[in-house]
Design goal:
Shape: globular
Pfam families: PBP2_Ca3427_like
CATH topology of the largest domain: D-Maltodextrin-Binding Protein, domain 2
Number of strands: 10
Radius of gyration: 18 Å
Keywords: Signal
Protein name: ABC transporter substrate-binding protein
Organism: Bradymonas sediminis
Order of helices and strands: EHEHEHEEEHEHEHEEHHHH
InterPro entries: Ca3427-like_PBP2
Amino acid sequence: MKKLIIGGVPEHFNLPWQIAIGEKKFEAEGVELVWRDFPKGTGDLNRALRAKEIDLAVILTEGIVRDIVQGNPAKIAQVYVKSPLLWGIHVAAGSDYQSIADLKGTHAAISRYGSGSHLMAFVNAESHGWNLTEDLKFEVIDDLNGALKGLPEGRGDYFMWEKFMTKPYVDQGIFRRIGECPTPWPSFVIAARNDVLDAHEPDVRSVLKVINAATATFKDAPQTEALIAERFGQKPADVKAWLSLTQWASEPLTHDELGDVQEKLMQLGLIEEALAARDILAF
């Protein structure tokens, strides 16, 4: 039985993986799949793929596309979540900032350079007409826990993270959300190292088969809402709202979608050139 290690953020998007592993669905297809949490997010996942610490990753689309263009020897196997990711824009509850306009020229708290929180700060800035060189500054705070501690202490002025995962901290009065910024493309994809694809493509396809079957029924399963609420400290109403907005997928990233991502990354100065689809997409 082939052992594969997959990494992803410890968030509700990835609960179907945990359930399928617990129910030994992957083992039934001849794959021992091991899950690793990466709370620091996309930048750390890219690092782990490059270092061969993991074989596959469930990762933000813009983050893996940028890193592949910059030399990460991996490819995108398929879309995992096709709905946009809704990034909440948060400040410390006691902050004087009241609007996104107030944040121009201040420091965005990011998990690491190359992370989703880093790249989406550019998307947000561009959407508001800011100067991407002068009006964007950064403070590395590692992860969500780092932001929960750092923002109230003045380490960073605002923090972008998925709005439903941060909602409990807004409710607790640690963060105050002053805006949102949706991704203009499918939010999550499944990526695999090139050497893993070359040597074990049938096993990778088995992994995709299992997770696609799991996500196809996830929203309709009677225990899903209660399980998410309990495991991630969410209010049932927030879970219901999140599920209504979230669409899992089983298809490849299209050439048009990939083109949109690369065009935006070039426009923002985050990559210098676009690669051909065959250099980024596995299938």
